[in-house]
Amino acid sequence: MSSSFEDVAFGAAGARARVLAAPSSASTRAAVIVLQEWWGVNDVVLAHARRLRDELGVTVLVPDLYRGELGVDVEEAHHLMTNMDWKVATEEIREAAAWLRAERKAERVGVVGFCMGGALTLIAAAEASVDCAVPFYGIPGDDACDVSAIEVPVQGHFGEKDNLVGFSDPGSAKKLRERLRQGEIHFYENVGHAFMNTTPQPYPNFEEREKVQGFPKLDESAVELAWSRVDAFLRKHLQL
Hints:
Layout: E1 6-10, E2 15-20, E3 30-35, H1 43-56, E4 59-63, H2 74-83, H3 86-103, E5 108-114, H4 116-127, E6 132-136, E7 154-159, H5 170-179, E8 183-188, H6 206-213, H7 220-237
Helix pairs in contact: 3-4
C-alpha cells in the first residue's frame, strides 16, 4: 500500500493540496479532509492524514492553506495564521470536498482538523457540505461561525489543561458542547493544547515546547484513546 502523497490542484483559484489515495482494496468510497495546525502542512499533520488513511481505508486530502509556507516558530506561525483569509480558506475547504466527490468519487466526506484546523473544521461543518466533523482543540469566534447552526454530527476533543482561553480551553469547549445540535465533546486529563502531536515539532523536545508554550508533555494513552474515538465516529458517519 503506497504511502506517497500526490500534489493536486483544485477549485476556481487553483488551490493546492496533498492527497493520499485509499488502498485499492477499499470496499467503500469515502474521504477525509485533514486541516493543518497554525504551523502549516508539516510532518505532524501529514502523519495524522496517513494514519487516517491506513486505519480507515479512505482517501485523505490535506489542503495547503498557507501555499507552501511553514511557521518555524510561534511568531511566524501567528503571523501566517492571522494573515490567512479565513473566508478564502473556507471556500477552499468547500472546493476540496466537491473535488473529492467529483474526482475521487467520494460518496461521503468527513473533515478532521487540529488547532487552527479545528476551528476551520467547525466552520466547514456549517458551510462546506461535509457529512461529519472532528475538531481538535480549536473553536471559531461567533463572528466566523454560528456553531448552533451546524447540522452534521460533530465529535470534539480538548485537553483539561489547555491554556488557550477563548479558543480551546475547557470552559470554551463546554460552551461549544451546549450549543451543538449533534455534538459529543471529549475531555482528556493531564494534557493541554496540541496533545495529539507525538513529536514536539518545531521544537527540539517536549520540554522546550512546554517552556515556550506551556503545553504539557506527551501522554500516549490520551492520544490512543482519542484516535479510537475518532475511528469509531468516522466509521459510523462515513458508513465504513
